[in-house]
Amino acid sequence: MRQERTEDQYLLIIDLEGLPPEHVEIRPFGRSLMVRTRVDARTHRSESFDDGRGYRESYRISTGSRTRRLPVPPDGDLARLERVDSEQQVRVTIPRAAAQAAPSWR
Questions:
Q1: CATH classification of 2-95, choosing from 3.40.47.10, 2.60.40.790, 3.50.50.60, 3.40.50.1820?
Q2: What range(s) does the SHSP domain occupy (predicted)?
Q3: Tens-place pLDDT, residues 55-85
Q4: Helix, strand, coil abundance in the chain, percent, nearest 5
């Protein structure tokens, strides 16, 4: 996850690393952003016995999530937040309300 700042906007870039974009939830929470990622892993294994008298199947399902809260500088306009998804990343832009000096977004 990277955070960048330009003269007119703040940018949050989340590299997906194989995670589907719909498993990344981003929403304003007060003067911050809540970023939640959800991971679902499912495996299926099937094997036959060597003597040909049957087979065994196993399934494994695991889920997990991670939440991170990122403060947004005072000049960030959360009402105009925009999100763009691609296969590689989620990009969130937050326009700056005015071209004024703001604290670092880290």
A1: 2.60.40.790
A2: 1-106
A3: 889 999 989 999 999 999 999 999 999 999 9
A4: 5, 60, 35
The Cα–Cα gap between 93 and 76 comes to: 10
Most distant CA atoms of the chain, gap in Å = 76
**β strands within 30-102, DSSP E:** 32-48, 55-71, 82-85, 89-95
Q: Which tens digit of pLDDT belongs to each residue from 14-63?
A: 999 888 999 999 999 999 999 999 988 889 999 998 888 888 899 999 89
Task: Give the C-alpha separation, 17 to 105, whole Å.
Answer: 24
Report the predicted TM-score, pTM, of the whole model to 2 decimal places. 0.72
Q: Which residues contact 95 (CB under 8 A, 6 or more apart)?
A: 8, 9, 76, 77, 80
* Residues found in the chain: 106
Q: What are the residue boundaries of the structural domains of the chain, listed by start?
A: 2-95
